[in-house]
Structure formats: structure tokens, C-alpha cells
Write a structure and sequence with these properties.
Family: Belongs to the PEP-utilizing enzyme family.
Protein name: Phosphoenolpyruvate-protein phosphotransferase
Strand order of the largest sheet: 1-8-7-3-4-5-6-2
Helix content: 40-55%
CATH superfamily of the largest domain: Phosphoenolpyruvate-binding domains
Subcellular location: Cytoplasm
CATH class of the largest domain: Alpha Beta
CATH topology of the largest domain: TIM Barrel
GO molecular function: kinase activity; metal ion binding; phosphoenolpyruvate-protein phosphotransferase activity
CATH architecture of the largest domain: Alpha-Beta Barrel
Number of strands: 16
Distance between the termini: 34 Å
Strand content: 5-15%
Pfam family, one: PEP-utilizers
Shape: globular
Radius of gyration: 25 Å
Number of helices: 22
């Protein structure tokens, strides 16, 4: 007898929880090139007039979406729609389209398709997850313009049944506003990752979601029965009775635990033997602070300052940056906020900066390397942070440090920023802690040397794992090799924590490993006392902490330290998770 196997599609879990329901497929009709060419000069202006009218209509549509948004629309969706208006207004896109129309004599729709396709490809090739996720935004605005040029670009039906699981190549801000989000039980997308729009919306609404599921997701049809596990990223198609029963039980258990988690908001994050563990959040702007405190967070372990520099036409000046950091400080309730200085370059392109194209952008001109090369820009950011420090407990963190010279040079620029503010007679708080990201293996190996130069370390596991294992986790050919539980990675992390304690500096972790329940006791056993993560993950990690002791965590670390196989390590750590 042939064994029946329930098909399982594996993606990336981007919002925890379990959804069981029927699929609703959002289909986008692919536009194709016609190959038509213009036959005279007069047609060029006619085509560009069509383009300008379509862009104007597109901007009006997005503005109407924003104006008509109700309480079900997340702030994140509205912010991304604002970014769409900036994309639509980008003169460079028009210049590129005009070039194809005037030089290559292409009709306007073909010219736009080629420009958008090239731009989407550029974003998709970036190694930074946030920037890669913006490819969907570019495609969305391209589709909107094409629609207003008269091309059919969408065959989706946004009238969905309650309890549906949305299936799509990707889900745009336009999609999430057009659909009734109350009827959505889960999201699953072929592309994207933790920073895609679908993931952002799902996390904000507490909806289970998986991204990066690949082409296999295209086999699902509207009406198919699905199970979606937002923690593991698995999508199970046509589950059999036994699988369905198992996941119904898992879903009930998750919902029960989620209710209990919410009750932990005001419970101190301390182990049963009294050892305090600080749980803070990774954020992008002041508006994110509300969610931090709603989930019981104690501050901010990572403010991604580079997002202030994106989606615009020029560098923000000192006053604009000061206002940005001041807003965060005022909303922080005087809790600590660690600001990572600008981390752009290579994969995070700013079109107005003119950064060079690089063969290996992740190993190139980016982060602290740009800041130290362009001290004129760096000192503006540091002055703005120092001024905003008057309004809260801000801290400065330098990214991508690989040697001690970089730290010393960065601190010299910080001192120069203080001198400039003094000479200007501008109020600021000079007492500010300075730390570094440990995300390059060289920094982890010589943590004992670097610890003498700074007030704190924050371990960025996302890059540390990729650099240590030479693995791009978004490359499906090698992503299975991306493994934060590799003993080599764990040894580097342990060394950083050990050296930090020896030199009496504060140690935190702000990479994804900090929010992985499998790693919680292991990291505490290594001596880690601060975990920074997405705000929605805080209650789940807190629940592990308040039900465990440091002696238990230490025992976990000692056992893992004797293991040589990451599969063995993960299997053991899974036995420790609450059932």
C-alpha cells in the first residue's frame, strides 16, 4: 500500500501562531512586453504625457487609501504607503523611463516594465533583509502606474471569507488595505522575509505568517484546506485527519499561552532565583515605543537609525535628526535607548549618495567604514544624538567594527562633535555610553581587546552567523547551512560574553537569536543578561525566564558545550521548551 504523505511547504516563520483555514489566493496578472516601437518623434511626448497622468492618478489613489484608512489599518501600512508616494514622485524613475522612450523608441508601458523590473531586481539582490523587502514596494508602485496606463495587472478578489489564509507571491500595502483584515487568519508568501510588509502587518496584528515559501506555494488554490505554523514557517496542504487533530490541539495550546503571556506585561523579568534579565526591543522610530511597553519591554536595545536616511532625496540635517531622536527619547519613559549609528552602504543604497556598485557589498564600503570616511556626515549624526540625550537615556553604538583603530577613530569624532556643540553654545548631555556591535568574527575573537575601549557590547548574531559560516541565509542553495547553533558560532558568542564580564562592561544581544526560545537558557547560561528583539517576542522569552533558574541555565550551557553537532544541540534544547 502506498504511504500517504501530507505535503508540507517550508518557509520562514515571521509571526508566531497557528492558523487553520481555507486558502485565499491573491493572484497578480503578470504584465508582458509588447515589443511595439514608436514610429515618430511626436509620439514620444504623447507617451510621456500618458506616463505623467498615470503617475498623478497613482499618487491620488495612494493618498485616498491613506485618507480612508480605518482602525484596522496598521501604522506600519500607512508609513509604507507614504513611502510609495515618495517612490511615485522619484524623478529618477521618470528619467529612466524617458530614456527608453526617446532613445529606444519603446512604448510607455514597455519602458516602465523594463525600468521597474531592473529596479526590483536591484533591491532583490541586496543582502540586507529590510532593503530586499522593499522590492515588493517598487513592484507595487509599478503595477499601480501600469494599471493607470490601462494594463490589467491584478486578477485578485479581495472579498474573502472569514478565517482565510492569504496566499500570494507577496502582499503589498495596497492589498492589506483593500482586504478586510478581520477575516484573515494567516499570511503565507512566496517571497519576503521578517522585514517584508506582510510580516510587519502580521506581527502588528498578531496574525500567524510565513514568508519565503518559494514557488511551491503557487500550487495552492483558493479553497484548499491549510495549516500554517508561523513559528516554524511550515504550510501544510490538505492535512490528513491525524495532522489536523494535532494542530487543532497545538493552536488551542498556543492561544492559551498567548493569553497568559499578555498577563506578564508588568511581571519583572527575573529568574526564580532572583537573577534579573533585561528584555528590550529592536525598533525603527518613536512610534514603535508603544508596542515595546505594551509587551513589557524595558527599553530599546537597537534603534536602526539608517531608516531615517531612506526613502528621501537627500541626507537629513542635524535639526531633523535631532527631532527624530528627541521623539524617541521622550517616548522612552527614561528607559535606555541604544542608537546604532548609520548602517548604510553596499546593500543599502541611498540613490542620492552615489555609493559605488560592489561585487561583494556585504564585505565592502558600509556602516562604520562610511562614517569614518565621511566624517562630515558622521559628526552631524553624533551631534544630533548628543543633543537629544538631554531628553532621555540614549546610548551610541557603532556597527560593523572589525578592529580597535575604528573604535578609537569613531570616539575621536564623537569628541569633536562635543567640542562643536560647546563652541556653538548648544545644550547637550555629554555623558553618553558608547558601545559596538559584535558582528564580525575578528571582533568576537579579540573581544578582550575591544572591551577596554567601550562601555558595552551588543552581539549582532544575524551577521555574525553569516560571516562566521560564510553563508547567505537568503540564498536558497546554501540557506540550510545558516545555523546559529553551530558550535563555532556558539563559541564566539560565549567568548564575547566571557570577555565582557571580565572587563566589567555590559553585554547584550540584538540579533534574531535573542528572540529564539531554543536559545534563551543557553545564552543565559553563557552569562548574557540583556536580550533585544521584536516587541511581540518579549512575553514568550519572559515566560521562559521567570520559570527557570540560573543554575538550570548554567547546566544547559555546560551540556551544550560538550556537544559537537548542531543537530544534537537543537534536539536537546527542544526538550527544554515548555510543552
Amino acid at each position: 500500500m502506498e504511504l500517504k504523505v501530507t505535503p508540507t511547504i517550508k518557509g520562514i516563520g515571521v509571526s508566531p501562531g497557528i492558523a487553520i483555514g481555507k486558502a485565499h489566493v491573491i493572484e497578480k496578472q503578470k504584465t508582458v512586453l509588447t515589443g511595439q516601437l514608436l514610429d515618430n518623434e511626436d509620439a514620444i511626448q504623447i507617451e510621456m504625457d500618458k506616463y505623467d497622468l498615470a503617475v498623478s492618478k497613482s499618487i491620488e489613489e495612494v493618498e485616498l487609501l491613506i485618507a480612508q484608512a480605518d482602525e484596522t489599518v496598521t501604522a506600519e501600512s500607512l508609513e509604507i504607503l507614504e513611502t510609495h508616494i515618495e517612490f511615485l514622485s522619484d524623478p529618477q524613475i521618470r528619467v529612466d523611463v524617458l530614456e527608453k522612450v526617446s532613445t529606444e523608441r519603446k512604448i510607455i508601458s514597455d519602458a516602465l516594465i523594463e525600468v521597474i523590473t531592473k529596479l526590483v531586481g536591484m533591491f532583490q539582490a541586496m543582502t540586507d533583509g529590510y532593503m530586499r523587502a522593499r522590492a515588493a514596494d517598487v513592484q507595487d508602485i509599478g503595477d499601480r502606474i501600469l494599471k493607470n496606463l490601462g494594463l490589467p495587472v491584478s486578477a485578485s478578489n479581495h472579498s474573502i471569507e472569514p478565517g482565510s489564509i492569504l496566499i500570494a507571491e507577496d502582499i503589498s500595502p495596497s492589498d492589506t488595505i483593500a482586504i478586510d483584515i478581520k477575516n484573515v487568519a494567516g499570511f503565507a508568501t512566496q517571497t519576503g522575509g521578517p522585514t517584508s510588509h506582510a510580516a510587519i502587518v502580521a506581527k502588528a496584528r498578531g496574525i500567524p505568517a510565513a514568508a519565503g515559501c518559494g514557488i511551491n506555494l503557487s500550487h495552492i488554490r483558493t479553497g484548499d484546506l491549510l495549516i500554517l505554523d508561523g513559528l516554524t514557517g511550515e504550510v501544510i496542504l490538505h492535512p490528513d485527519h491525524e495532522t489536523l487533530t494535532l494542530y487543532i490541539s497545538k493552536k488551542e495550546d498556543y492561544l492559551r499561552k498567548s493569553t497568559l503571556m499578555k498577563a506578564l506585561k508588568n511581571v519583572p523579568s527575573s529568574m526564580v532565583d532572583g537573577r534579573p534579565i533585561s528584555l528590550v526591543a529592536n525598533i525603527s522610530e518613536a512610534a514603535d515605543m508603544d508596542q515595546v511597553f505594551e509587551n513589557g519591554g524595558e527599553g530599546v536595545g537597537l534603534l536602526r537609525s539608517e531608516l531615517l536616511f531612506m526613502g528621501r532625496d537627500s541626507f537629513p540635517g542635524e535639526e531633523e535628526q535631532f527631532d527624530f531622536y528627541k521623539k524617541v527619547a521622550l517616548k522612552s519613559q527614561n528607559k535606555p535607548v541604544t542608537i546604532r549609528t548609520i548602517d548604510i552602504g553596499g546593500d543599502k543604497q541611498l540613490h542620492y549618495f552615489g555609493l559605488p556598485q560592489e561585487q561583494n557589498p556585504f564585505l565592502g564600503y558600509r556602516a562604520i567604514r562610511i562614517s569614518l570616511d565621511r566624517k562630515d556626515l558622521f559628526i552631524v549624526q553624533l551631534k544630533a544624538i548628543l543633543r537629544a540625550n538631554v531628553f532621555g537615556d540614549l546610548r551610541i553604538m557603532f556597527p560593523m567594527i572589525s578592529n580597535v583603530q575604528e573604535i578609537r577613530e569613531a570616539k575621536k569624532v564623537l569628541e569633536a562633535a562635543k567640542v562643536e556643540l560647546i563652541n556653538e553654545g548648544t545644550a547637550f548631555n555629554p555623558d553618553i555610553q558608547v558601545g559596538i556591535m559584535i558582528e564580525i568574527p575578528s571582533a568576537a575573537v579579540m573581544a578582550d581587546i575591544l572591551a577596554k575601549e567601550v562601555d558595552f557590547f551588543s552581539i549582532g548574531t544575524n551577521d555574525l552567523v553569516q560571516y562566521t559560516l560564510a553563508v547567505d541565509r537568503m540564498n536558497e542553495k546554501v540557506s540550510a547551512l545558516y545555523d546559529p547553533f553551530n558550535p563555532g558560532v556558539l563559541r564566539l558568542i560565549s567568548n564575547v560574553i566571557e570577555q565582557g564580564h571580565k572587563h566589567n562592561i555590559h553585554i547584550a544581544m540584538c540579533g534574531e537569536l535573542a528572540s529564539d526560545p531554543l536559545a534563551t537558557l543557553l545564552l543565559i547560561g553563557m552569562g548574557l543578561k540583556e536580550f533585544s528583539m521584536s516587541a511581540v517576542s518579549i512575553p514568550f522569552i519572559k515566560n521562559i525566564i521567570i520559570n527557570s533558574s540560573f543554575s538550570e541555565a548554567r547546566e544547559v550551557y555546560l551540556k551544550v558545550n560538550e556537544m559537537s553537532d548542531s543537530d544534537e544541540i537543537k534536539a536537546y534544547l527542544k526538550t527544554l521548551l515548555p510543552i
